[in-house]
Amino acid sequence: MSNVVVVAIDGPSGSGKSSTSRAVAEHFGWAYLDTGAMYRAMAWAWLESGLPIEQADAVAAMVRNVRLEVGTDPAAPTIHVDGTDVTATIREPRISTEVSKVSSIQQVRDDLIARQRAAIAAAPDGIVVEGRDITTVVAPDADLRILLVADPRARVARRAAELGEAATGAEVTDQVIRRDRDDSKVTTFTEAAEGVTVIDSTHDDLPTVVARVVDLVEQVLVEKP
Ligand SMILES: Nc1ncnc2c1ncn2[C@@H]1O[C@H](COP(=O)(O)OP(=O)(O)OP(=O)(O)O)[C@@H](O)[C@H]1O
Ligand SMILES: Nc1ccn([C@H]2C[C@H](O)[C@@H](COP(=O)(O)O)O2)c(=O)n1
Asked: For ATP, which residues are the binding ones (predicted)?
């Protein structure tokens, strides 16, 4: 068994996966892998390519050829596509709207899952990995597996507060509720798999959720050989 500690966190949009994972990784001085950013980067590359999404084989081939560099410093995560820094661009609403089309292509998923596993294997001490299928597919043997959930209303309100005037109410609802519906066709993040700890953040603020995860990690560290 590897000495690297792997923490896997899944959950729906706006449940707090990124904020919690970054804070936990920073707390322990570990790496942070945002797998959603990898799908977003590929969605950006697809939009740049102009390929019709119906040509799934061509989209998957394009994705396979992309040089993706993912910076795993939780204080400043970055992502580059063939040398272009897309860290900020992939957060634009146009990417949130389109990303599920690309992440629904199984060949794209297979390619990114292999890259995610390689990034996990390259982590020096520990890594917190977040997404939709980390506890079930990417790292089912992680040392700690968490499903972070929150009431849909709380998640929409969080996203609305975050985006402010950059998005209308309808756009926010689309980014959270419609996207979850589309994403749940290819990944399972609404129910916990066996051995996965559920944390409901609906009524807890971010520091409280982070403290709960840190406690769980501490327990794992005591038991890990
Ligand atoms: N427990 C919490 N209480 C209140 N707000 C929170 C909590 N956790 C996260 N937030 C806020 O909610 C928003 C969404 O959080 P975050 O981006 O971490 O969610 P996410 O699950 O990674 O979403 P997505 O999958 O859509 O990227 C952010 O503005 C964040 O600061
Ligand atoms: N492991 C993952 C991570 C993400 N996705 C897809 C689904 C999301 O709509 C999109 C962007 O993720 P976010 O940045 O919002 O967390 O990527 C996935 O299918 N599997």
From this structure: 11-19
